[in-house]
Design brief:
Shape: globular
Oligomer: single chain
Number of strands: 17
Strand order of the largest sheet: 9-6-5-4-3-2-16
Distance between the termini: 44 Å
Helix content: 10-25%
Bound molecules: zinc ion
């Protein structure tokens, strides 16, 4: 991995050293130099070859698995960033779509254009856009009606299936927290927040010999709840990366979450991005110090093979001026009530 040499920052060469050796059940096995998380989509970052936009995507390479977690907000920008990082989308073990918001899904069309059969894990939601099914017993029957007034002439299929927005895509829908491969768990939780109530979200927990590496998309169910679920797999939380959805949270709410992550769950390293929010970047940086890992678009976080590992650690500001300008411009698009997709659709219709 190549890391930009920034004179004012010091690098810690021993971070996240994860000798991935164990074969114990429920822990990832395998080894190799490529144990890392590469941020492919975000609204801040230092890599001039990457385009910035509001949304999230990361390539997670751990224990010989190549997992694409979320696909960003815009198909073309996603495709450009994938190309800039030389990511071969035909060589993925699977894709995880954290939830049904546009800023995490829009690049899926690009993924499918180059890899139409790739396995895609997505949350199972009733009548959701990833497709779903229900036993036909779910609806009340009126046997006395003539057949032509009855659904399916009165003889419905036992299971009714409902289509996905990507017909033919190889979805596997996840209803509850599931270990999909040894040591790799998709945590499924439901948002209780106004505006996104009933939204189901998947987070990726990888149980390495040095603790859980947790990748989150937008954390609508609450980053504290997601970390709690991860701690049930292994109480040692090595790294949490992704969007914590505190972009409009009050200082009090931020302090509470930061304390929960640091003191209750004793999260070892934190690499916040996306909808975490500027005040939360600052609060996390202050709390975690050199265990705060800068993770803008284009950053590759080493999560194994310590020899080459080096990260820009927390000695620097959480975001510098350039980052702040672009992050603020793009963050203005974030909608805490999850209605941005609707607004964008309306705007498109009006054009
Ligand atoms: Zn979202
Ligand atoms: Zn988001």
């Amino acid at each position: 991995m190549i890391l930009r040499s920034l004179g004012t920052f010091s690098f810690c060469l021993t971070v996240l050293m994860m000798p991935v050796l164990s074969n114990a059940q429920g822990v990832v096995s395998g080894s190799g130099p490529e144990n890392r998380i590469t941020i492919l989509y975000d609204a801040f970052g230092k890599d001039a070859s990457m385009r910035k936009d509001w949304g999230f995507s990361a390539l997670v390479e751990v224990a010989g698995k190549r997992i694409l977690f979320d696909t960003g907000d815009n198909r073309d920008i996603f495709a450009a960033n994938v190309k800039a990082k030389n990511v071969d989308l035909t060589k993925l073990d699977f894709v995880v779509l954290s939830h049904r918001h546009g800023d995490h899904m829009a690049g899926l069309a690009h993924v499918l254009s180059v890899n139409p059969t790739v396995k895609i894990y997505a949350p199972k939601e009733g009548f959701g856009i990833f497709g779903s099914s229900l036993p036909s017993s779910f609806y009340r029957k009126a046997e006395a009606l003539p057949p032509d007034m009855r659904y399916f002439d009165g003889t419905p299929p036992e299971v009714m299936t409902f289509g996905s927005a990507w017909q033919g895509a190889n979805f596997e829908l996840i209803d509850k927290t599931t270990e999909i491969a040894p040591g790799i768990t998709l945590i499924a939780l439901v948002s209780e927040a106004p505006g996104t109530r009933e939204l189901k979200e998947l987070s990726l927990a990888i149980n390495t010999p040095d603790g859980i590496v947790l990748v989150v998309g937008c954390s609508h169910p609450g980053i504290d709840k997601i970390v709690e679920a991860a701690a049930n797999i292994n109480p040692k939380i090595r790294l949490v990366a992704g969007g914590f959805h505190l972009v409009v949270a009050s200082d009090d709410a931020i302090s509470k979450i930061v304390a929960t992550l640091k003191d209750t769950f004793k999260v070892e390293n934190i690499a916040p991005g996306h909808c975490t929010g500027e005040p939360t970047f600052a609060a996390l940086k202050q709390a975690f110090g050199d265990r705060y890992i800068y993770a803008g678009v284009g950053t590759a976080l080493e999560v194994g093979s310590g020899a080459a590992a080096g990260q820009r650690r927390g000695e620097a500001p959480a975001l510098d001026t350039d980052d702040l300008v672009s992050y603020r411009r793009l963050a203005a698009r974030e909608d805490p009530f999850g209605l941005a997709v609707w607004r964008r659709r309306l705007a498109n219709k009006e054009q």
